[in-house]
Each structure stands twice: as C-alpha cells, then as structure tokens.
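Ticket 4471: requesting a sanity check on a complex prediction with coenzyme A. Repro inputs:
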Amino acid sequence: MSDGVQSKMIRSVVRGFGAALPKRVITNRDMEAIVDTSDEWIVQRTGIRQRYVAGDDETTASLGEAAARAALANGGLTPADIDLIICATSTPDNTFPATSVNIQNRLGMSHGFAFDVQAVCTGFVYAVTTADAYIRGGLAKRVLVIGAETFSRILDWNDRTTCVLFGDGAGAIIIEATEGEGTVADRGVLTAHLRSDGSHKEKLYVDGGPSTTGTVGKLRMEGREVFKYAVGMITDVIQAAFDSTGTTADDLDWLVPHQANRRIIDGSAKKLNIDAAKVVITVDLHGNTSAASIPLALATAAGDGRIKKGDLVMLEAMGGGFTWGAVLLRW
Ligand SMILES: CC(C)(COP(=O)(O)OP(=O)(O)OC[C@H]1O[C@@H](n2cnc3c(N)ncnc32)[C@H](O)[C@@H]1OP(=O)(O)O)[C@@H](O)C(=O)NCCC(=O)NCCS
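Returned structure tokens:
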C-alpha cells in the first residue's frame, strides 16, 4: 500500500471509464407483480426505484465486454494497449475459465493476461487494489479493471427480502502506470485498505457451488444482520484511508460508495462528516449490482462532469464474507 509521502514513485492513474446496462428495466411497480412488496416499502428501506435485469442474450461477460469497450473509447485506447484484465465478479459466465479471459477473447486480445477477483460486493475495490499492486510491482503497465455482474441469475425470485434489492450491470476503468511525486497531490491510487472476516459467512452467501452441491445456488441474506455491521466496517476502512494519507473529509471531493442501500450510504457519510453533496448515489437507478456498482457510479459521475481530473475520490464497499475495503485516489 502506498502512503503518499515518499520520493518519486509509480502511480496507477485513471485513463478511461465506461459502463453497460442490460436492456430491460424492472421498476418497483413491476416488482409488485412478482412478490408481495410495494414501491413505498422498497424506496423507504433502500432508496431503490428500479433495477436492470439481463435478458437471455446478455451475460456477465457480454456486459463486461461492453463496459470495457466504452472505457477503451473514453481513454482513446484499443485492446492492443492493455496488458492485464482483472474482472471482479461473483456471477461468472462459467465456473471456469475466468470471465476476464472470456472478455479478453471477446476484445480480440491474445496477448497479456487476465484473471478474476471474487470478493462479492467489495470485488471492485479488491480489483483496483490488485491492479495497483501489479502496476507498482512492474508486472503491468495498463490494466483494464472491470466489475460485472448478473445477480438476477442467483436470486430467489420468490424471496421478497432479497430479490427486490439486486440488479445487473457492468462498469470498467483503465488505469495506467504514471510517474508521481510520492505525495497526496499525485493523481492515481494513493492508498488502499482491504479487510475480510469469514466468520460472518451465514449472513450473506450463496447456498450452492461446484464443490458442495454441484449447483449454482441462490443468494441468502439476513438483511438486518448485514445492516448491523455495515456502517461500522465501512467507516473504519475509510478512516484508515484518511489517516494513512493525512487527509480528511474536508479534502474529499467525492465519496463513491458501493450502492447497496441508501440508508447505509447516508449513515456512513454522516458518521464521517462527509457532506451529502459529495456523495455519488446511483442505487435508485441500478439497485445493488455488487462488484459493478462502484464502476457504474464512477462512470455516471465522471460522465456527467461531476468527477473531474484532480478530484480526490474515495471508493468503499462491504459485502459477502464479510469483505470490506476502501481506496483513495486522485482522478
Ligand atoms: C434488507 C433490508 C432493506 C430490510 O429492511 P429492514 O428494515 O431490516 O426490514 P426487516 O428485515 O426487519 O423486515 C421488516 C418487515 O418487512 C418485511 N419485508 C421484507 N422484505 C420486504 C419487501 N420486499 N416488501 C415488503 N415487505 C418486506 C419483512 O417480512 C418484515 O415483516 P414483519 O415485520 O411482518 O416480519 C435491510 O435490512 C437492509 O438494507 N440490510 C442490508 C442489506 C444489504 O444492503 N445487503 C447487501 C450488502 S452488500
């Protein structure tokens, strides 16, 4: 991890961003026809108003490919310029090969290398941290980091306590090796803090897998239990990122949180005295898209001109495992 006050060093700087969503939108009103729920209940408890759901012709890899192509175009790059692809996903097209390798092939690439990262909703934070380590270790120069999910395929559509919460989508950024001064004024990833604790498995998991049931399984969650831990875990890692760089909530331009639940996001920002106007919210439009939610939110806020070059941006997430983490970067 880089802590920001050293001599010249390699930084992982964002060069491009992109996103992709399935064609089909399911509103809360549509959900009322599927399970015993209401728009009012969903909005009040979660802030979610709609979610996108993949059709038969859309998969994690196809959405990831579309997000990757958008990020390449945004960065003025082609697949030939990429030497590593990391895809964060818990809903791969196949148990193996990795979705990232599938995307590599879809992009017409046979050079470089690709692998997946699986840390559920914290996947994108883990993937950016991993990409940064590869770049600073000299193993890669330009990395395509993707978060792509089709959680609709692992939902129990009869369980109203979970199926209303999740959606499908993909987002991507490209980060590239750039020399920095070793201070927090540098562009690029400034610090990263990752955590996991497997003792919380039963609170949020999928009840199947290749080595246990031989099936894909469905998502199971004790929502109230997850909620109980979320704000504390999220604020701990954000505070660690501030402390290790000597920055504070006042220095921050944007908090781009994992979009699980509006109440968790608002509670975390409030506890850290982060101004609500600095928080990027997309959970109303996308629902919880797990590893895709942060890059979707980044693409939304950078795309509409809110996040600008030089802005200090905090990414944070918490999810199944539990896993949790934060990355502080200068855009
Ligand atoms: C899931 C969550 C929104 C539920 O909200 P809650 O206030 O904790 O609600 P509860 O689970 O206590 O349920 C309250 C009531 O609403 C009902 N309910 C649950 N889902 C419902 C739905 N979709 N529509 C209507 N009613 C629903 C419950 O059955 C319960 O009814 P009861 O009191 O008659 O038993 C909330 O716990 C949460 O956001 N947890 C975090 C989940 C999360 O973000 N996970 C992902 C992390 S990456």
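Notes from triage: The mean pLDDT is 97. Leaving this open until the requester confirms.
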